[in-house]
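Q: I'm writing up a methods section and want to include an example of the input and output format. Could you take the sequence below and give the corresponding predicted structure tokens, formatted cleanly so I can copy it straight into the document?
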Amino acid sequence: MRPGLRERLARGPLRRGAGRWPARLPRPHTLRARLTAGLVVLLAVSCAAVGVAAVVELNGFLTGRLDQQLRETGERFPASLEHGGTRPSDHDGGDGDTRRQTVGTFGARLVGDTVTNAAVVGSSTGTGAQNVPLAAADGRTLAAVPADGRGHTIDLSALDDYRVMAVQGRDGDVLVTGLPTEPVEATVHRLELVAAVVFGAALAVAGFAGAMWVRWSLRPLSRVAATATKVSRLPLSSGEVGLWPRAPEADPRSEVGRVADAFNTMLGHVEEALTKRHASEERLRSFAADASHELRTPVASIRGHAELALLHPGPVPQKVARALERIEAEAARMGEMVDDLLLLARLDAGRPLERLPVDLTRLVLDAVTDAQAAGPGHRWTLELSEEPVTVPGDAHRLHQVLANLLANARLHTPVGTTITISLETEETEETEETEETEETEETEESTAVLKVHDDGPGVAMDVQPRVFERFTHGDRRRTEGVQSGTGTGLGLSIVAAVAEAHGGSVTLESAPASTTFTVRIPAGDG
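A: Here is the clean output for your methods example:
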């Protein structure tokens, strides 16, 4: 074995920075993958440590056996070279000394730093010891071996790696005896190969078995995660919420069992809170609906009496007539507000709307015609697709959406503002995951997109987040130069409620000189 092999084997893979995760390798993301990777890494480190220890120990043991053999051989073979003969018949006792040596035994005699004789035992008894032509570098290597009676590993260019031992001769010379390390290296290399194959197979089997074991152990946690995913998909913003899924029960003594129990307890608390919220909302909706319904009759009576008083044939003082006109106007405005509140209460209660094919293109044309008559000072433009856009829904409520959006643009922008109404159909792809097979399916859906754009002053930033809330009014900057007090603050709330009732949505994008309301309604099959 070459010099430093033991030290290199001892260091092995435990080099500096080995504990860090390699930058080029992808880091596992799931807990299951991390546990499996950690298990395999720990097992690999253990196998490597066992393999390195076995190789180092075997190498040391075999090297020690070589040193013991060298001590038993002693200086007899190199001493026999002192007479200058290499064959057993060339000197007394040479035949016996050569025959008793192991094949490949090396012997050398040095006087000072010069090698006077060097030979190696041949492979057959007939050849005896054979002279070895040593290079100058080999001579210096032999001269550097200390005569301390201990084994040293050297590399001879004429031969190979040898384990040699040097002792002082009786004539003041140095006698060097050596044995080849090739049998030791072959044995160690074979052990390395066997260890690599066995440990590699063990790692593969342990990795597969560990992955299965980790997966089985984390199955309750996977069920908790699946339950959490189902709960996250439930619409919790409004309406009645039933948190029916619960995490499966597990051993409460385990960490996963405690997580599942805490998760189920949390779901119970959330369900209780949402149930109380829903009950409160239902009471509020019922109050709003009842109040709106009860107010319709007295408001209509007030308006009727005011109209009747104005139709009186006799003379009516001017102030009284003005007061009656204001009573009639405010009664009409209050009647519209009551109707809007009643509509919102019904939509909040989840009452179904009609689901008949509605030609949105025709509704847009009619609504724009009405808006032009109400706002002749504005510039109205249309951008319609060549084919009519049809959606399933309630024609009366969809017309109300268009009317409210156009009225909002007309009432909150100054005269001369350009209002653009566009209507188109867009195709979207949606991905759905089936619960049974956990596979994803892509479906194409058609959506009608209605946009109302104006180049007015825009909606204030602080108003935009609550623009679709009830009783929200624009600021002075947007209503500058227009008649104020004409809106009830419920128009955009009705737009949002009707759009959601049709399975759609409404959004706002506003900046100075550019305000766009976008309504999306699923077109379905029309």
